[in-house]
């Protein structure tokens, strides 16, 4: 007998890619459990499935930097409190220092929905009743009909896991110029921010050059600990404010207004799936 929960939850995170560097991502998680019926006539109580699996994903994957620990691109130094990662890609590199709980090390060579699901299933086995014979976990991206972009950021003032310096989202955006949808502007922003790190100017430390590449260095202290990230300046967008979705929407709207002063704009910026902010200029 099988029990299933479609779209159990979604996870917003970033991962390191051998070609793209740091990539913000959002996946929907669905679960299927196989096992015999218990005395209640259930494979497993839906309440247990939802609470246990959703809580585990929220703790160990959501709002983390997910890293393929077996990749040849990764150099990982770990102690009791922090993980220090250097990631080589496309003749460039990325460096991230974060508290342990902000990094999810996957026993794989590449980050894919399948490799992350396989790793998660091994961890989840110990948390579910032993009457469960098989777990099938799938991750799928949102089916976005128009344009989307992948962004990574950190919110040092946030009291939850958004304070982590390298977590992200795959998001879409709606832009209205003079009350009419402008898909050309949406396409331009999504192309510009395809795999972007949105950094806050007050968190910026300096720009350094290595092997002819400029790197931006960001760092801050938050409730969970000390965070640092250094990555190619070409992959960064520096803004004057924090990078909440409200302020991202305002940044885009105000930038458009400066570029096109004779028009008014409405920007509906999404943060992952089904949530976000609307700004006007």
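^ structure tokens above, recovered residues below v
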């Amino acid at each position: 007998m099988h029990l299933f929960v479609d779209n159990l939850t979604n996870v917003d995170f970033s991962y390191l890619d051998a070609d793209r560097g740091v990539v913000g991502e959002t996946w929907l998680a669905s679960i299927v459990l196989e096992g015999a019926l218990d005395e209640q006539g259930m494979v497993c109580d839906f309440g247990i499935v939802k609470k246990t699996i959703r809580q585990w994903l929220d703790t160990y994957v959501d709002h983390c930097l997910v890293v393929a620990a077996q990749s040849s691109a990764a150099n990982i130094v770990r102690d009791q409190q922090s993980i220090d990662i250097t990631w080589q890609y496309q003749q460039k590199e990325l460096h991230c220092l974060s508290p342990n709980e902000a990094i999810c090390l996957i026993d794989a060579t590449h980050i894919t929905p399948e490799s992350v699901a396989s790793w998660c299933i091994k961890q989840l086995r110990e948390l579910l009743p032993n009457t469960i014979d098989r777990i099938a976990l799938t991750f799928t991206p949102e089916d976005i009909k128009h344009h989307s972009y992948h962004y990574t950021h950190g919110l040092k003032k946030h009291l939850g896991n958004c304070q982590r310096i390298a977590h992200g989202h795959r998001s879409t955006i709606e832009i209205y110029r003079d009350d009419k949808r402008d898909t050309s502007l949406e396409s331009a922003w999504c192309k510009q921010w395809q795999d972007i790190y949105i950094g806050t100017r007050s968190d910026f430390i300096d720009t350094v050059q290595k092997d002819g590449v400029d790197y931006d260095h960001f760092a801050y202290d938050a409730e969970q600990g000390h965070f640092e990230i250094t990555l190619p300046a070409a992959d960064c967008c520096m803004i004057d404010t924090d990078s909440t979705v409200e302020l991202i929407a305002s940044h885009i709207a105000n930038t458009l207004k400066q570029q096109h002063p004779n028009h008014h704009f409405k920007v509906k910026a999404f943060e992952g799936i089904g949530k976000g902010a609307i700004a006007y200029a």
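The two ends are 55 Å apart (CA to CA).
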